[in-house]
Amino acid sequence: MILGVVPLTAYLLVASVLFVCGLACMATKRNGIGMLIGVELVLNGASLNLVAFSHYGSLGLDGQIAALFVIVLAAAEAAVALAIALNFYNNHLTIDVDRADELKH
Amino acid sequence: MEPETLRTSLIWLLTTAWLLPLASFVVLGAAGPWFRRTSRLPGYLATSAMLVGFGLSVSALTVWVASHQVELWGARQGEVRQAAHEAAHAGGVPAHHEAADSVDAAATTVHAGPGPSKLAVAGRYYTLAKIGPREISLECYIDGLTLVMFAMITLVASCIHVFALAYLQDELTEDHVDHEVHLSGNRHFHRPGRLGRFYTFLSLFCFSMLGLVLAGNLFQVFMFWELVGLCSYLLIGFYGERHTAGSAANKAFIVNRIGDAGFLIGLSILWTCFGVFHFANLDAGSPRLPGLFELDVNPALQASFLAGQNSNPPTADAPSADAVVSRNAGPFETLPGWLLTAAGLGIFAGCVGKSAQFPLHVWLPDAMEGPTPVSALVHSATMVAAGVYLAGRFDPLLTPDARIVIAYVGCLTLFIGATIAMVAVDIKRVLACSTISQLGYMILAIGVGGWLAGIFHLITHAFFKSLLFLCSGSVIHACGHEQNMTRLGGLHRKLPVTTWCTFVGVVAICGLAVPLLPPVPVFGPIAFSGYHSKDSILATLLAFASLNPSHSLLFLVPLLTAGLTAFYMFRMWYLTFFGTSRTTSPVEAEREASWCLKAPLCVLAFFAITIGMAGENGPLVGILGTAEPVRQMQLAGAVDPHWTLPTHLDIQRHHTQAGAAALCMAFGGTLLATLFYALNQVSARAIQQRFSRINDFLQHQWHFDDLYDVTVLQPLRRIAAACVWLDRCVLDPFLNGCARLVVSISGWDRRFDEAVVDGAVNLTAQAFWQAGRQLRFVQTGRLRHYVMSITVCVVAIFILLFLFLPGRS
After folding, report:
1. pLDDT of residue A4
2. How far apart are CA A84 and CA A88, in angstroms?
3. Mean pLDDT, chain B, as a whole number?
4. In sequence order, what are the beta bridge partners of B135?
5. Are the beta carbons of A27 and B788 separated by less than 8 Å?
6. Which bin fits B196, alpha (ψ -120 to 50), beta or left (φ > 0)?
7. A81 touches chain B (CB under 8 A)
8. What pLDDT is attached to residue B170?
9. How distant is the Cα of A95 from the closest Cα of chain B, in angstroms?
10. Is B782 an interface residue toward A (CB < 8 Å)?
11. pTM for the predicted model, two decimal places
């Protein structure tokens, strides 16, 4: 019932808020973990969109499958990113991403 | 022996004898670098090849004589008697009778009447080219002349090969000093010994000379003709470091080229008109065109092929004075007489060069720069005789006009040669001039129709002249290479063998005989070979002169020259071997003791005495007579308006008078030389001073060298100078201008390249470089910037898609 009450626009609004929050998080955080959290927020915003469209739009089950994919990808990405962060910390005793600019030089 | 077996065995024997020196040449040439300089092995190799060749030639000659039962004794006599008999029956028209009747029937089927000798065989090795019915091939033609020449060449060559082993012993060293070459600082030229090279060249020469004699067509003769010329060049220039030897070699080669140009012209005329080079087509069944000897030179002075095919042999009366049908060989049905004369004179020009006849005789005295064995072999016995041989071979085709030129050339040459020899002081030069003179006798004899006499003299001359040269070599060898007779003398005690061998040669060449004694049974008149051959030449000349009184000079000059010959030969003998010794270096008499030196002298002396025995009734003339060409003009009994050739009968009639006259002249010359140089009754110096102008003229060899210098060399040099001027002042500036133009054009081209093409390429590269540099700043290295740029891009793409993607509802 609740589903019928809450319109699609609300889902989209929440998703865009999540997305923008994630973006802002990625753009402002210097902490690597913080950036990772921003990425997760963006991905979740995208997943929410997919699920919402699968229910309201014509996507059907495809949207939900895509959302599952996004969750799995996010997990894998988090694993990789955390490993990188750990290694980075081991080498530089910090996880400040602004310090990770050696490839440029 | 069966004719076919005989043919095969003759060809095999002579071909082997011919190719053996080639094998020796190839082995010596290829293995030369591995022979030690001190080794006599090359000499032994070449000598044994020559000796085996001699054995083969002699066996070929024996087989041939035995199977044809050639009459060795008195063949001429019987023939002349028969001719006289026939002449009496035929009402005075002289007729020629073919030699020996006892010939195999199979061998005679092809040629009844005119044409090549019945006793000849021919074979073909290889066909070089075939153009329609014409063909050029390597083949052989063997008749009595070929066989005798083969035996003579191989024998003389063997003797000379052996002699050279001793004569060139100084070359058997790693460090030979050539005392004739003066380097700066009073030094002499040092070089390794060259015995191997000498024998290599000598082998090549023998191969070429035998090939020339064996050749079955004129083209092949020409090939080997050039080869012997080359060998002569190489051997004259054997001591190439001596300036004189080098220029003598060049002179010989270049002068011979002039004659060979004539030879080529003659060949071209024959090929154009007749389309054949081969002497005779002896194979009855072959479809080959008839050869040169089968041409019909008819009284109207027109030559053409004998009428009819070979399967239908022409009979003696077939050629008539009117039209004669030609085979399909050449464009001419009948050849105009003047063209045949030109062909004959062209071929004769080759002989003039090779046989050192006037006006191309100048090379032979200079050719004495070569080692003495070479002078003995190449420049007296064989190569220079090749010209006479060729003239003899070509005899059937000589027209009367050509003959008169040949006769006068020979006559002039024999006189010039003899007069130069009278004053020459170099022992080898005397012999060289005497060779020129004797060759003149042969050419003259062939010119006036004395084919047999000329060829007879060719063979006897080969023996006694090579003997004389080897004797001079022995003297030179013993006296430290002194050749000037004014610095020799008194050698007869120290070099007895050489002295008396020289005496044999001198007597032979002078034609002396013991007069008024009855002839010895087998040997004939008591005289050496030269007497017989010179006698028959003079008899021919006297017969000719009495038939044609306007040409009596052709008898008188040779008769006078016979006296001159005796004079200069005895002068040489007395000056060298008698009188006081005038040598500057000690005479190494023991050098004569070597058997390698003595044996060839004795062998050649033996042959110089005996080869002509019994004269015109002897075996040599008997064998040569079978090869004598039959002249169509005589057969037809034609009387040429200008002159007549003597027949054998005429010659026989004049034999006694000519012989007596020649003998008187020879004794006169001998006596004069004895008075001058042995008894010193007359001072030769006083006579020379009295006639100093003549003496000067003769000393300078009739100024021929000066004449050629003025008429040929100086104009040539002037032309060359003009050409140089043209080159330097016209052609060079023109070419330089062209080059400069090209250089300036390419300069401009370079600028265009650098400015436009390179500029465009560089500009492009610069642009990319700059773009790269600018884009570098986009990469900040800050993660957040990348994230933001991704975001911005995604949003931008989204907006663009949203705005512009087609199909959006």
Report:
1. 61
2. 6
3. 84
4. B130
5. yes
6. alpha
7. no
8. 86
9. 12
10. yes
11. 0.76
pLDDT at B103 (0 to 100)? 31
Quickly list H helices, B32-143.
41-68, 75-89, 105-108
| Residue B807 burial class via C-beta count within 10 angstroms: exposed 0-12, middle 13-18, buried 19 and up | exposed
Helix (H/G/I), strand (E/B), else coil: B276: coil
Q: Which two structure tokens, joined as six digits, stand for B353? A: 């060069």
Interface touch B783/A105, C-beta < 8 Å: no
ipTM, two decimals:
0.79
Whole-angstrom CA distances from A75 to A36, A40, A50, A51 are 11, 9, 18, 18
Task: Report the greatest alpha carbon distance in chain B.
Answer: 153
What does the alpha-carbon distance between residue B65 and residue B228 come to, in Å, rounded to a whole number? 29
Number of Cβ within a 10 Å radius of residue B444 = 32
Interface test with A, best of B789, B791, B798 (most A CBs within 10 A): B791
To the nearest whole angstrom, how far is the Cα of A25 from the nearest Cα of chain B? 10
Rounded-to-integer distance, Cα B214 and Cα B208, Å: 10
Tokens of B527: 């005289």
Report the alpha-carbon distance of residue B394 to residue A47 in Å, rounded.
121
Subunit contact B791:A23, Cβ cutoff 8 A = yes
pLDDT of residue B171: 87
Task: Give A2→chain B minimum CA distance, Å.
Answer: 31
The reported pLDDT for the residue numbered B106 is 29
CA B570 vs CA B16, B431, B696: distances in Å: 41, 12, 21
| CA dihedral sign of residues B674, B676, B679, B681 | positive
Instruction: Give yes or no for B775 touching A (CB within 8 A).
Output: no
> In angstroms, what CA-CA distances link B565 with A27, A93, B19, B388, B633?
133, 129, 38, 20, 34
User: Is there a contact between B571 and B427 (Cβ–Cβ < 8 Å)?
Assistant: no
Work out whether strand B121-131 and strand B187-191 pair parallel, antiparallel, or are unpaired: unpaired
For residues B702 and B415, is the Cβ–Cβ distance under 8 A? no
pLDDT value, residue B310: 35
- pLDDT of B114 reads 42
Q: What pLDDT, on the 0 to 100 scale, is given for residue B770?
A: 95
Q: Which residues of chain B have pLDDT under 50?
A: 90-115, 298-331, 632-639
CA dist., res. B398 & res. B277, Å (int): 15
What are the distances in angstroms from CA B782 to CA A86, B523, B787? Answer: 19, 133, 9
Tell me B138's DSSP state: E
pLDDT at B732: 94
Residue B464 is predicted with a pLDDT of 94
Domain boundaries, chain A: 8-94
Q: Is B180 exposed, middle or buried (0-12, 13-18, 19+ CB in 10 A)?
A: middle
Q: Domain A8-94 has what CATH class?
A: mainly alpha
The Cα–Cα gap between B255 and B189 comes to: 29
The pLDDT of residue B296 is: 59
Query: Is the four-CA dihedral B274, B276, B277, B283 of positive or negative sign?
Result: negative
Which residues of chain A are within 8 Å of residue B779 when distances are taken between CB atoms? Answer: 104
State the pLDDT at residue B490: 84
Q: What is the predicted pLDDT for the residue at B671?
A: 92
Q: Which residues are CB-contacts of B472 (< 8 A; sequence separation ≥ 6)?
A: B372, B427, B428, B431, B483, B502, B576
Task: Among A20, A26, A103, pick the best mutation site for testing chain B contact (most B Cβ within 10 A).
Answer: A26
Phi, psi of B123 (to 5 degrees): -150, 155
CB contact under 8 A, B784 and A98: yes
Kindly give the parts of chain A with pLDDT less than 50.
Answer: 1
